[in-house]
Amino acid sequence: MANLTEQQAEALARKAAHCALENLLEKLGVDTSDFLEMQKDFAHLRQQRKASEQIGIWSRRILLGVFITTACGIFVAGIKSGLKGLL
User: Fold this and answer.
1) What's the CA gap between 83 and 85, in Å, rounded?
2) What angle do CA 26, 32, 38 make, to 5 degrees?
3) How many CB atoms lie within 10 A of CB 43?
4) Which of 26, 61, 70, 87 has the fewest CB atoms within 10 Å, i.e. the most exposed one?
5) Are the CB atoms for 38 and 30 separated by under 8 Å?
6) How far apart are CA 43 and CA 37, in angstroms?
7) ∠57-68-87 over CA atoms, to 5°?
8) What is the pLDDT of residue 10?
9) How far apart are the first and last CA of the chain?
10) Per-residue pLDDT tens for 47-81?
11) What is the pLDDT of residues 12-53, one digit of tens each?
12) How far apart are CA 78 and CA 87, in angstroms?
């Protein structure tokens, strides 16, 4: 076994890597017989992640808008109150 050619060593390494990867995916609960379904599942997960990120971004924007609107309202109410005191 010590006198392997480069092609034999590469084939052996590929086979070992393939078996190890397939074993790992099976332990993770992935059906390795249908890789197209697995790709669809990963695409769905990516869409869910992006949607979740967008919800976070829009939530921050809405909260910032509410804060700015409230601050402007308080500022305008203070100016009106100050002007009433002068007149």
Assistant:
1) 5
2) 110
3) 10
4) 87
5) yes
6) 10
7) 170
8) 93
9) 102
10) 999 999 999 999 999 999 999 999 999 999 999 98
11) 999 999 999 999 988 988 888 888 988 898 899 999 999 999
12) 14
Q: From CA 86, how far away is CA 75, in angstroms rounded?
A: 17
**Which residue bears the tokens 């007149």?**
87
* Whole-number CA gyration radius for the chain: 31
Contact criterion met (CB below 8 Å) for 45 and 38: no
**Tokens standing for residue 59:** 């939530």
The pTM (predicted TM-score) of the whole model is 0.56
Question: DSSP letter string over the chain?
Answer: --S--HHHHHHHHHHHHHHHHHHHHHHTT--TT-HHHHHHHHHHHHHHHHHHHHHHHHHHHHHHHHHHHHHHHHHHHHHHHHHHHH-
d(C-alpha 66, C-alpha 15), whole Å: 59
